[in-house]
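Quarterly update, task 2.4: NAP-bound model.
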Amino acid sequence: MYFKTGHERAFGTFPLKDQQIEDALESALDVGYRAIDTAQMYANEKNIGNVLSQCGLARSELFITSKVPTSEFSESAFIPSVEKSLSELKISTLDVLLVHWPPGDDDVRPSLDWLQQAKQQGLAKHIGISNYNTKQMRIAKEHCSEELVVNQVEFHPLLNQQTLQKTAIETGIPLASYCSVARGKVFEYALFNDIAQTHEVTAAQVVLRWIIQQGVSINPMSTKRANQAANFDVLSFELSADEMQQISALTNTGYRIVNDTLVPFAPTWDK
Ligand SMILES: NC(=O)c1ccc[n+]([C@@H]2O[C@H](COP(=O)([O-])OP(=O)(O)OC[C@H]3O[C@@H](n4cnc5c(N)ncnc54)[C@H](OP(=O)(O)O)[C@@H]3O)[C@@H](O)[C@H]2O)c1
């Protein structure tokens, strides 16, 4: 049921802007990434458009995701904001369009209607959601006539997201992971290095493999070519059931990066 769009590894682009995103994306494309994750809020779509329009790759080879922020959740603003994304990215349609956040714990349905309209108008091939809790996932599933191909959420080995995973299976809305290496926090745990040695890979690759092996896609961001290459090369080895379980035990840490302090408008997260 997972990877409905067939792209399990995207290149994350937050918080890179200006020359930094252009350099990082050129390198990521060279390494092999074809899926790119951006958002209106990242203020880097224009730079991404510059790189993609000059990279020599056909549009059909690329897979571009962007997201509409809650500030554009109105009848008059939603669609024009997507048209602006397309213009900045220099493309005519997105591969995936997401609503970046639910409107706190308020009704998600109006924004889902505008999201579906964007697809029906040909502005996006696929649509999905981000930062939805389980209650909102169920409402979205019930409400939408168009298929939702993903719920992009914080997902890494230091946070237990089993409740969301069960709801992903129940609703058929797969999860994608952001903050996959917990912005570096995972590297404080020796377990990843220990397992990495067995497979002759790096700690980051072990972390990303643990995510992918659960049917959750990844969007790691890196400014460094060596890290980008390692993060892309996660399909050539497999973690044993015991290794998966040892890593899963760390989810009891309960380390949430995108918490209520960082994002006061976040919905009530599932326990
Ligand atoms: N939907 C949402 O609300 C939402 C929220 C947050 C993020 N996102 C998306 O998800 C993407 C990823 O999340 P994120 O960037 O916040 O967190 P992340 O991918 O967990 O962490 C990025 C950090 O990890 C380091 N890193 C990456 N790969 C590494 C490796 N192999 N070895 C050592 N260090 C490594 C990078 O440093 P170097 O540059 O030095 O490699 C960077 O500082 C974002 O770029 C964005 O596209 C979405």
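Highlight for this quarter: The beta strands are 10-12, 35-37, 63-68, 94-99, 124-130, 148-154, 175-178, 217-218.
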